[in-house]
Amino acid sequence: MRNKCVTNHVMKRDSKYYYVRHIPKDLTQHYSIQRLCFSLKTNSDSTAIRYSKSITQRLDDYWFGIRLKNMDVPEVDKVRLDNAINDDTPKISEALELYLKLKGLGKDKTFIRTANRNIQYVIKAIGNKSLKSYSSSDGAKFRDWLLANNMNINTVKRVFSSVRSIINISISELGLDCSNGFARTYFPRDNSIESRKPLPIDKIKLVQKLCKDKDDEMRWILALVSDTGMRLGEGVGLLKSDINLDCEIPHIDLKPHPWRTLKTKSSQRCIPLIGASLWASKRILENNNDSIYAFPRYTSVDNCNANSASAALNKWLKEQLTESYVIHGFRHSFRDRLRAVECPSEIIDQLGGWRLKSVGEGYGKGYELSILSKWLLKM
């Protein structure tokens, strides 16, 4: 067994990383040990270093507090503590109430639910404190808590964006003299972007075959998005009535619903059904349940739980394929497949619900289903 020092306070033993730090001599009376040593619970060099920096900062703050308590401050009895006692800065739960009062009018349930959920994350991780009390080290602690709960870095960034906005509204509206403790939190590079790579056509065909063999609700979702380019949430949040098969060109009429909004105005669109997506649509409508939802396992009147579907499908994909792919990779592949048959970019953007690149492209109602279908059949 060999120990290797990676950086300050980080030691590698075999393939595991540990945090190691000696207790300062003036604080040893507060401990029953001379040295801290515990596992960082990661095999990643960069993650271990990031965790170590956060732990070091929190220890420094804690030890500084102990030293302050032991200091002999002259005339301490004459120091006014009014500001410390009467901190009238609102708590983060109160900041949420103000935010929803000002920004929540006319917004859907998803907006309100997301704001509530993100503030509950903060309260659970670091407490329901006054806005003035949150420091940059609290922001780092909150980031690490989210990552430790298996959120990918892009989700963590979205949570932070929401929390920052909620706090900034209170600071601005109430004229508070404090900074936003979540404003300058560092985020590591997103390594998951590499796994969002497009799937080659042979992998797509393999997955589609496996979906037909398995033939259940989860595989219908995967087959549906594989040949339509839909975002996962768009597909999971469909009504059965959004699927139109009794017409000349079978298609999905993708529109917003109270339980699932759409990302952009361009996202509302009609998508012809071909190949695996047509098969999946038929299986959805043949499914004899009384639900109005295409995927009642993940969708209800109050919620569209695309994250749960994503986790389950990505796990299944990992088990079936030798390389690391995720379900969003099918959307990347969809665009590449259309490029490969020299499909015009305007049609690609219309099919995928991507933002139009020029003002002129936004005029008119777009291409007919017959033209869209023609290009999809060439893929």
Which CATH architecture of the largest domain is right? Answer: Orthogonal Bundle
Classified in CATH, the superfamily of the largest domain is Intergrase catalytic core
If you average the pLDDT, what whole number results? 86
Order of helices and strands: EEEEHHHHHHHHHEEEHHHHH
Q: Enter the CATH topology name of the largest domain.
A: hpI Integrase, Chain A
* Radius of gyration from CA coordinates: 26 Å
The largest β sheet comes out as: 4 strands, antiparallel
Number of strands: 7
Count of structural domains: 3
How would you sum up the global shape?
globular
Number of helices: 14
Strand order of the largest sheet: 1-2-3-4
Distance between the termini: 55 Å
Task: List the SSEs and their pairings.
Layout: E1 3-7, E2 10-13, E3 16-22, E4 35-39, H1 45-70, H2 82-85, H3 92-103, H4 109-126, H5 136-148, H6 153-174, H7 201-214, H8 217-226, H9 232-236, E5 243-244, E6 251-254, E7 269-272, H10 275-286, H11 306-320, H12 329-340, H13 345-352, H14 369-376
Antiparallel strand pairs: 1-2, 2-3, 3-4, 5-6, 6-7
